[in-house]
Every structure is written in C-alpha cells, then in structure tokens.
Amino acid sequence: xxxxxxxxxxxxxxxxxxxxxxxxxxxxxxxxxxxxxxxxxxxxxxxxxxxxxxxxxxxxxxxxxxxxxxxxxxxxxxxxxxxxxxxxxxxxxxxxxxxxxxxxxxxxxxxxxxxxxxxxxxxxxxxxxxxxxxxxxxxxxxxxxxxxxxxxxxxxxxxxxxxxxxxxxxxxxxxxxxxxxxxxxxxxxxxxxxxxxxxxxxxxxxxxxxxxxxxxxxxxxxxxxxxxxxxxxxxxxxxxxxxxxxxxxxxxxxxxxxxxxxxxxxxxxxxxxxxxxxxxxxxxxxxxxxxxxxxxxxxxxxxxxxxxxxxxxxxxxxxxxxxxxxxxxxxxxxxxxxxxxxxxxxxxxxxxxxxxxxxxxxxxxxxxxxxxxxxxxxxxxxxxxxxxxxxxxxxxxxxxxxxxxxxxxxxxxxxxxxxxx
Length: 421
Ligand code: LLP
Known about the structure:
421 residues; Lyase, Ornithine Decarboxylase, Chain A, domain 1; TIM Barrel; 2 domains; 12 helices; 28% helix; 25% strand; globular; binds ligand LLP
C-alpha cells in the first residue's frame, strides 16, 4: 500500500496533486511520501514486536538526508556500506551506536572514520578485512565490535545480479569455515565478536530461502556458543521484495517474515537486527516524467519521455518492471494501447518498457513510474550531461524540494582544465 492515489481524477502524493509539484519543480523528478515511508518502517518494527530488535534501514536504497531523518525519527538505525553513507547518516543525525557497517571492501580509512565517530558493529566479510580492522582498532586503542557475514549457500531465487547468498557470490565467508574464522577473530585483540551476520539477496519474493538461511544461522549460533563465543546479536540482512507489477505479484508481508524470524531464531535470546531497504523506500517514491513526443514507428508507437536510463537505471540494468501510469486518471472505458516507453539517451538500452499497454497519451502529458523510491535516485548518473533530477518529499499537504536540480553551470564547472590546454 502507498500514498500515491488518484483523487478527483488526478494522481496525488498524499494530499498534494503531482501536477502541482511538476508545475513548480519541472520534470523529471522523484517524489517520496512521508506516510508510506513511515508505514513501511512500522510494518517491520511491529513484525518484530516483543523481540529485542533494531531495524537498520539499508540506506543504499534511498539516501537523501530528509528520508534518513524521517526514518531515524521513528527509531530506525542505518545499514551503511561506505564512508560516504556513514557521513551522510551522521549528518542526518543518526547516532553511531545505531549504525551497522556492511560491505565487502571497507577501506582502512572507512574503518577509522567509523571507529572514531562511533559504530554499532562492523559486518566483516573476509579474513583480510578482519585483520585490517584489528590493526586499525588497535592503532586507535579501541576494540571494534564485529559480526562475521556468513554465506549460507542458499538460492534466494532472485535476479542473478542481486543474489548474494550463493557460494559463487563475492559476499561473506563460507558458512562451512565459520568456526575457524570466529576462532581467529577471538584471538585478535582489536576485535570484539558480538554476533553473526547474513544477507542472501534482494527482491526476494518467497520465504523459503530465508528459512533455509536462518536455520543454518540458528545452528551456527549454537555451535559458536559452544566454542565459547558470545553470540548475542544476529543481523539478518534485508531483501524482502515488493510488488513491482501490482496486477500479478504479492510477495510475503513483513508480518509473515517476522513470524519466520521468531520461528527459526526466536529461542536463542539474541538481539535481532534487520536491514530492509527496498521494502521501506520502494513504494514510497515515484518518478514523474513528461512525454516529449509520441513517435509512430513501424508497427509500434514510441512514447519519448524526458526521463531516461540515467535517472532510473533499473529497467536497463535488471530488465526490471515498473508500473507506468498517467498522472491524469484515464476516463473509464478508454481502450489501452501498446507503447514502447523510452528516454532521450543515445542508446537502445534506454528503454523503460516495450509494448506496454497504456491509455492514449499525447505530447506534454505527465506519467509516473511507480515503485521507484528504492534504487532510483541513488543509482542515477549524469550520463549525456543530464542533470541529476530533483527529489521532493511530501508530508500531508506540504512538499519540499530535498535535493535541487543542478544547473548546467553547476555540472560543467566541476571539470577542471589542466594548465597546458
Ligand atoms: N543489507 C545488505 C548487506 C545489502 O547488500 C542490501 C542490498 C540490503 C541490506 C538491502 O536489501 P533490500 O532490502 O533493499 O532488498 N540495485 C538493485 C538492488 C541491490 C541490492 C544491494 N544490496 C536493484 O535496483 O534492484
């Protein structure tokens, strides 16, 4: 459920007509709903009610500080994967002891930054990383709290580019080697083992892969405790999928996921951390774009939009589906027709949808890509020297630009010309 609904024939973001935002901000732009962000955060928080837990929002999904501040205000922690994300979370007011640091390639500088600034835990992904963190922590005279990310070798049944829990993926250490690695960790004075971490992938649409992974984590917890490690925290990662194609998909709900967590891990007495990104931000954002031209090709019509693959890369990169709807509600009974929906960028990959059935649209009409709140703005680029598009946050009747569109000068003045030219 989200808060982008038609009212009086016009698409609204909460109480604000999307066309009003377009008139003020220009197109294309992203707009997020505070109410949807809040609702989705609470769904997770409530799904784990009664269990000691922290929902660490995976801010890679949508990292504007206004979004982080909204979620932090509800009690969210953050999952960060770079020094930049750490700095951004801190700038948005998130305390260090609510930030977990994930990622396969943390640098020593990033480790130092987080240790100095305050961190809840590092999710360590390899032995070399473990040794580096030990060195950095000892250099600072502190102990770094760690979990080790284990790779449970389960098939998350998702797109190959976003599956992370199979042995051939670059993530974590094989679960079969966990005892050995934890034994090593216990010998390193700069580290303090606090738990286990696992994350098997993203856009997961069934619970079974989670069950397999969490059962393995439960077994491992018992084994490691018997080995003398103080396993008091389990970070279960993120990955729960969302219904991109509303007419025919219904992934499991956070409440069902919460039940599975209790069933598989509830009797261990561990504090639970989860790292959802997409499910919190995905349906909380839409991308609004204007039709520049309708071009009739051979046997097909192209809807040429002012948004392109640089603004929303998911269709080009993962063949992802996003529902695309007109901002003015189509009249009842209007026959849909097929369009190839494309952007202006100079490559064929700049195609959002092929043969998509939509009501008839004309030059100047506004359309909205649904479920674009996660991995939308954050993956945008300035390819073709197209400015990063603005982000807008709506709260009931109010809206605010939370990232402004840069001018051409802003963009081109970042280049510097060497003196020999
Ligand atoms: N935790 C870790 C360690 C992760 O690597 C990820 C996502 C998450 C949590 C959050 O997963 P989520 O709940 O959002 O599924 N750009 C791709 C998705 C990449 C996901 C990367 N890791 C896309 O647009 O589909």
